[in-house]
Each structure stands twice: as C-alpha cells, then as structure tokens.
Write a structure and sequence with these properties.
The complex is a heterodimer of chains A (232) and B (330). With 232 residues, chain A is α/β, with parallel strands linked by helices. Chain A contains eight helices and ten strands. In chain A, strands 6-7-8-3-9-10 form a six-stranded mixed beta sheet, with helices on both faces. The longest helix of chain A has 17 residues. In chain B, strands 1-2 form a two-stranded antiparallel sheet. In chain B, α2 crosses α11 and α3 runs antiparallel to α10. Classes of the chains: A alpha/beta (232), B mainly alpha (330). At the A-B interface, α2 and α3 of A face α8 and α9 of B.
Chain lengths: 232, 330
C-alpha cells in the first residue's frame, strides 16, 4: 500500500481551476520530486494534500485512509509534516519555541531539541533568538527541523532552496538528503539539479496535470521533454 | 458650568505622587478591561463589541455575590477574601458563557466578512444590555446608576484614604493597581510559559502554519474567546467597588470605549502594546483629571485628550505602538 495516494484531484483558488486532475503516489521511504514551471500547481498540490486548499473533486488517501475534507490539524497529526515555501517562521517566537510548538503533545521536548540541534548544530547557538532575526538559511533549517521533530512519516517540502545563496543551498541539500534517508519526502523544487540529486522519482506538472513521471535516473534520456516543460 | 476657566487658588503647580498613584490605578483598570479584547482580536481577528457588556455583567454578578455573602457583621479581611471568591465565580461563569457564544454564534460566521462579526457582536450588546436592564429592574435596582449596595461591601480599609509621600490616595486605588499587576503577570505567564499560550502566540502570527503543525486552532479560538470574556468579567468585578465606576448598565459602553482606545493605541493583537498603552492612557487620564479638578472647569477634558492621543497615534503609526500590519485569521 502506498503511503500517499492522490487520485484525480481538482482544486481551486476562488474560481481559478488550479489543479485539473492530479494523480500521484508516494511509497514509504521514497523521496519524490514535483517539478514544473512557476504556477503549474506544485504548491497547490501540497496544500491540497494537507487540506489547506481542500480539493473539490478527487481523493487524497494517507495510509489508505481517505483524508479529503478533513481538518488540516488532523491530517498533520496523522504524520504529515509541512516545510512550506518561504519557511513561514513564527518570527516572534524563539528558535526553541518554534521547535517546541512542532513537538507533538506527550513527546519529550528535550528529545526534540536534541534531534533538531544535532541535525543542525549551527542553530544551537541561536536557540534563544527570535526566529525572524535569523538568516534565510538558518530559517530554512528551523523549518526543516520543525518537520523533523513532528513524528512525521511524510514530509511535504516546498522550495527549500528558494532565495538562498549558492553555498547555503549546498548545506540545505545535504540536510534534505539526511531527512530523506529517515522519512518519506514529497519535494517541490525549482532547482532542477538539486531535485534530481535528492529525489528517487519525479512527477512533471504542467497546467495543473501530471505530464510525465519516472525515475530520476532516467531523466537525462528525456532531456528534450524536460527542457520543453521547464523552460519558460 | 462656564466652560474653560482658571481658578485662582493656592494649589501646588503639580502633584507628581498623587497623579502617579491615580494613573497606576486607572492603568490597571484599563489594561484589564482591554486585555481580553486584545487577546481575542490578536488570535481570531474578531472585534468583540460585546466586550463592554460582559464587563457590565461581571460587575453585576460580582456585586450580587458580594451583596449576598456580606452582611454588616462581616469582618474586613473576610470581605477582601470574598472579593476573590467573586472574582473566581465571575471568571468561571463568563469564561463558560464566552466559550458558548464562540461555539454557537461566532463559529458559523468565520468565513464571512468582518462586517458579520461586528453586526453579530453589536447585536449581542443590545440583547445583553436589555436583558441586564430587565433583571436589574426586577431586582428593584435602578439600572442607570451605580449599584451603591455593591460599592458598600468594600472593606473600610480600602474606602479610607492614606498619605503616601505627602500625597493622599484611596486604599482602593492601590488595591486596583495591585490586582492589575497580578492579572498582567498571570496573562504574561499564561502566554509565555504554557503550551496553550504558545499556540496563541503562534496562531496570532500564522494560523495556517499553526494548524499544519497539528494544532486544533478552532479549539484555541474557543478557549481564547472564553478566557477573554472571563477577563472582561474580572474587570467588572474590579469596577464594582470603585465609586468612579460601579455596576450599572451604561458601564458596558463606557468600558468598551476605553478598551478600544487602549487596544488601538497599543496595536491590535499585541498584549505588550495593550499594557504599554494602558499605562499611557492611565497617565494621560490622571494628569487631565487632576488639571480638571484643580484648574480647568471642563469635565470632558480627560476623554477629549484620550481621543487626541488616539488620533495622534493613528496618524503617526496606523498599526499602533506595537502592532504588526496584519493579524488574526481563521
């Protein structure tokens, strides 16, 4: 059984028909990349899985259970984590508090700190600072750490390299690889080489539908098609 | 009344200690009045017009507890103890009432425009004020004037005046400042030291991200609307003993106005801003009241100046002293 099955979902922002029948599957342990130009529906797909933008048609199944239309916090508690675009720090909370709030009730907060700061030692010296005062790369680390401490089996990671300096992107890529070894990841990434490096499989989106999918190893052979859908 | 008029008396030019003591008691009252409004708006983006009416209900309910339990034979210390019993009763009752209002009335209209919330909570003002008027009249009281029996349950040592560094002040004002400090400390600890406080601060900044971390934000809305209503009631209990206010039906509108002024000056949704603005407005009010009593024969002066401060802040910094440009959401 797939961990996540998205079956022919249609999602809208107001009257705009964004997702026009997306179907995809993610198996346990995989890292799957969603690629495609800006505005083809990658972020909306992640939002629809979390029911932040509930699909009007189609179903989202997690561990075989239909979660379509369920409240977002229930989907999150089932083990779906979100590392959103632009990081979405609680900028007035400290780094520690950002980690603390992502720790499920009943779990040890100390253990969560240990997990977060061993994954990202650089954050350790900034624990008491407001997250809004950190650099972009550090904020991305906090965002990923929030996903890590949440007991998540599936992490939805959206544009982790966006707006970061090249040398920081390399560090984030390393962090993503570590995360991908431990949990299942559905990754949206504009940085094509990075996406192909980290992911096992990919889905290529265009105009709210999946136009191609396959193993990232075969991608070079399909260069022609990839270039057609990725270049503006 | 002859309008503006300087009186030629041999008064001190300024009385800093007296004004400071008056300011601290007023600041404490204003902060407690405004804190519930501030918490509710910060997390939920709901401007609760019924907040003042809840303060009015709290004043009557607290007064009723005191009048029922206090007799002329009740000792002074016992009266003080019963005050805290009244606080507990009113806080519990209004927290439950507020939570119920959120679940039944406000929850169905979160997805509508803010105008619906304003109309709904304004409608609640009319219902609560009218209901209170009927009940108070049935109890043989005059709804428009302060409930003197409730004021009379205050222990004598609070009604008495004391000399502090050459200034004279009522014991009650010191007591109010102390209760205000306790309430602010309690809210601060709730927000910074409890898991729920963390949810509230996070939810005020980004409700969507908060939900995506597995937090039931709707449940947090119910809790905050309840606690905010409980705080409105607590403010009422503080005002029930104060001869400057007292339990009456118009107390609702009176406190709502002050609450809005403080919350807007401080920045909608910022508790720190509410505290700072409460102190600021308390001092402005105290200075103006002192000027009014001693020099300028114009009773509207304190309120006029409060509104001038409000206008100045809105022109210079529309989001308020500590506000962020956008808060709240569902």
């Amino acid at each position: 059984m797939s961990l996540l099955e998205v079956d022919d979902i249609h999602s809208y922002y107001g009257e705009s028909h964004i997702l026009q029948g997306i179907s995809l599957e993610v198996e346990p342990g995989e890292c799957v990349a969603l690629i495609g130009r800006n505005g083809v529906g990658k972020t909306t797909t992640l939002r629809s899985i979390l029911q932040l933008t509930p699909p009007r048609e189609g179903t989202v199944r997690y561990r075989g259970e239909d979660v379509t239309g369920r409240p977002t916090h229930e989907v999150a508690r089932m083990g779906v984590g979100w590392v959103p675009e632009e990081r979405r720090m609680f900028s007035h909370l400290t780094v520690d508090e950002n980690i603390r709030i992502a720790t499920p009730p009943g779990n040890s907060v100390e253990a969560a700190f240990e997990r977060a700061y061993s994954a990202f030692p650089e954050l350790e010296s900034h624990r008491g600072r407001e997250a809004g005062d950190l650099s972009g790369g550090q904020q991305q680390m906090v965002a990923i750490a929030r996903g890590l401490v949440g007991d998540n089996d599936l992490l939805l990671v959206d544009e982790p390299s966006e707006g970061l300096a090249p040398q920081i992107v390399a560090a984030v890529a390393e962090a993503l690889k570590t995360v991908a070894e431990e949990s299942t990841v559905l990754l949206v990434e504009q940085n094509f080489p990075l996406a192909m490096d980290v992911a096992d499989r990919f889905y290529l989106l265009d105009h709210g539908t999946v136009v191609e999918s396959g193993s990232t190893e075969n991608v070079t052979r399909d260069d022609e098609m990839i270039r057609r859908y990725l270049s503006a | 009344m002859t309008g503006f008029e300087l009186t030629a008396t041999a008064l001190p030019l300024f009385a800093p200690v007296e004004i400071t003591l008056d300011a601290l008691s007023k600041a404490a009252l204003y902060i407690v009045i405004a804190s519930g409004l501030s918490l509710i708006f910060g997390l939920m983006g709901v401007l609760n017009f019924a907040h003042g009416s809840l303060t009015m209900l709290g004043a009557y309910l607290g007064g009723a507890v005191m009048v029922a339990l206090v007799s002329s034979a009740t000792g002074q210390g016992m009266r003080l103890l019963l005050f805290f019993v009244a606080v507990a009763v009113v806080f519990a009752a209004l927290t439950a009432f507020g939570a119920g209002v959120e679940r039944v009335l406000i929850r169905p209209i979160y997805d509508r425009e803010p105008l619906f919330q304003i109309l709904l909570t304004f409608g609640l003002v009319l219902v609560l004020d009218e209901a209170a008027t009927i009940v108070v009249q049935l109890a043989g009281l005059q709804p428009q004037t302060e409930w003197q029996d409730a004021i009379g349950t205050a222990p004598e040592f609070l009604a008495a005046r004391y000399d502090i560094i050459g200034a004279s002040t009522r014991g009650l004002y010191l007591f109010e400042a102390l209760v205000g400090l306790l309430v602010v400390t309690a809210i601060f600890l709730f927000l910074t030291r409890t898991r729920y406080g963390l949810y509230i601060r996070a939810g005020s900044e980004d409700p969507e991200m908060t939900q995506a971390l597995g937090i039931d934000i709707r449940q947090a809305f119910t809790v905050v609307f309840g606690v905010g209503s409980g705080l409105a009631g607590l403010a009422g209990v503080m005002l029930m003993w104060d001869p400057r206010f007292g339990a009456s039906v118009p107390l609702g509108v009176e406190t709502l106005l002050v609450g809005f002024i403080v919350v807007i000056i401080g920045g909608l949704g910022s508790f720190k801003g509410t505290v700072v603005a409460g102190v600021l407005v308390g001092f402005v009010d105290a200075v103006m009241s002192w000027l009014f009593i001693n020099y300028i024969d114009f009773p509207g002066l304190p309120e006029l100046v409060m509104f001038l401060v409000l206008v100045t802040v809105l022109v210079a910094r529309p989001q308020g002293l500590f506000g962020v440009s956008e808060v709240g959401g569902h």
